[in-house]
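Work package 3, deliverable 3.1, input record:
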Amino acid sequence: MAQPRLLLRYTLVMAALILTTACSDNRVRPSAPIELPDEIVEEECGACHQVFQFQMLPGVAWEAITNDLENHFGEDASLDDETVEHIQQYLIAHSANTVRGGGKFLWGTETTQLILRISETPFWEIKHRDVVPDGGWEYGTSNSKSNCTACHDNELKGNYDKD
Amino acid sequence: MTRNRSMSAKNILLQATMAVSLGLFTVGFAAASPTDDILAGYATEASALDSSFDGFSAERGRTLFVTEFGTGKEDTPACTTCHTNDPTQLGETRAGKSIDPMAASINLERYFELKQVEKWFGRNCKSVIGRECTPIEKGDFITFMLTL
C-alpha cells in the first residue's frame, strides 16, 4: 500500500512543479514550426555565412544584430534600409521566442547582458562543453564556431539532435 | 501561281530585312554590356571629382587588390584575406563560406548589377580600408578583374 501512495505523492509534487513552472513562465510559448528562410534572407545572410537557425537567438538579439550591420562580428555587412527592415522582421518573427524548439535557446539569456552570438548562449555552450575534442574548432575549412556544417551535416533542417 | 510566287519573294525579303535588323539591334546592345555601363558611370563620377582623370588602370586595380591596408577591420586587412591572391580561384569568408572567383572571365555576372557592385564595394572597402572607395578605385578594381 505504501508504494502506490508514494507514487501518488510523487505525481502530485511533479504536477505542482510543472504547473508552477508553466504559470511563472510569462514568455510566449514557442510554437511556430521551423521554416526555411525566404529568398531575401537566404541570399543576404547566406552570402557570407550559413543561414543560421533563427530560433537559436531571441528576437531582441536579432533586432540588435540587424540594427548594427555596419559592425557585424568584425565586418561591415550593411544593407539598404528596405532590405534591413525585411530581414529584421523575418528574424524576429522566427526567433527563439516564437519558433518551436527555440525555447531552450532562451535559457539564461534573460538575466544576462544581451547575447548576440549563438555560440555564447548558455544552451549552446552546455551542448558543446566536453563534447568537442581538443583541436575540434580547427576541424573543416574554417576554424570558426560559426561554421556549424564543419561538424553538423543537417543544418538546413534545423535539427542537430542526432549529430 | 505567279502572284503567290511574288508574294513569297516579298515575304522572304521582308523576313530577311527583319532578321538583319534584329541582328544589328542585338549587336548594338551587346556592345554596351552592363559592366561597361557601370564603368562609364564610375568614369563620369571620377571626372567630376578629378579633372585630370584619364581612364582606369588595371595595374592600379591590382595594387588595390593585393595591398595590406590594415586600416579597416582587424580581421580583414586586405581584399586577399578572403579572396586569396588569385582572383581566378574560389575565396572563403571568415565564416567558412565559399566565395565565387572575382575574375570577370569566370564570373562576369558579378559586375552586371550596379546595386550589387555598390553593395559589395560599400561593405568591403569599409571592412578592408576603413573608408568608402573612390570612383577611381572602383573602376580600377573592375578593370583589373576584366583582364583576368
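Strands of chain B lie at 91-92, 98-99.
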